[in-house]
Amino acid sequence: MYALSEVEGVVRVEPKLFSSDLNEAIASQLKATYVGQVNNDIGRIIKIIEVLKIGEGIIVPGDGAAFYRVTFKVIHFKPEINELVEGEIRDIAKFGAFIDFGPFEGMVHVSQTMDDFVSVNKEGTLQGKDSKKVLKKGDKVRARIVAVSIKDTNEPKIGLTMRQEYLGKIEWIAEQIKKESKETAKLAKAGKK
Predict the structure, then answer these.
(1) Cβ density class 1-13: b for 16+ within 10 Å, e for less
(2) Taking the domains of the chain in order of start, what are their residue ranges?
(3) For 84, which of 6, 56, 98, 173 is 20 to 30 Å away at the CA?
(4) What's the average model confidence in pLDDT over 79-102?
């Protein structure tokens, strides 16, 4: 889920930036230091919005840079269990599909792609045995987050499922809605008689 939060951190301002405006130098260093990083508490930092408070600068012996404790606002994305996400299939492996959604990548195991026996065919696509539904690289999909592990902030692990109603390939969802609309219209028409 995307959110706006106030966070606190320490930023290192290099000596070459001492002649610059302090706010600009700190904003630049915050961006270089924090944007894209993953944190257990708030997920991935997307953008630094505003510097709110700058503490006194400290110079550490042996390092010519100044260190500032800073309070700032960020936009971040933290994946939450049961959250619905839409993304694109980036890659398909024997065990499932990797889906890019927002600033993260998730994995949907082959058993969680659809309500069917699924196999990987020669073309590198996932295909349902009975339904003949196919998932391939580049397909747009909707999935539900079922597991999140941010223990290793360099490689967060996010598990997804597409086996519930209104999940899966976007075209499948559109077909399901169209079919249900026809059935609802048929029932409504039968009820008027």
Answers:
(1) eeeeeebebebeb
(2) 2-77, 84-186
(3) 6
(4) 94
The H or E element spanning position 145 is strand 140-149
Answer yes or no: is pLDDT of 34 > 90.
Answer: yes
Q: What is the reported pLDDT for 192?
A: 65
Contacts of residue 131, defined as CB under 8 A and 6 or more positions apart, other chains included, come to 114, 115, 116
Q: Which CATH class is domain 2-77?
A: alpha beta
Q: What is the DSSP letter of 168?
A: E
Check: CB of residue 33 under 8 Å from CB of residue 12.
yes
- If you search the block for the tokens 């301002």, which residue do you land on? 13
Task: Confirm whether pTM is higher than 0.85.
Answer: no
Among all chains, which residue has been given the structure tokens 């894209």? Answer: 36
- Say whether 84-186 and 2-77 share the same fold: no
Place of tokens 């998932």: 135
Task: Locate 162 and state its tokens.
Answer: 């597409």
* Domain 84-186 top-level CATH class: mainly beta
Average per-residue pLDDT for the chain: 91
Q: How many CB atoms lie within 10 A of CB 144?
A: 20
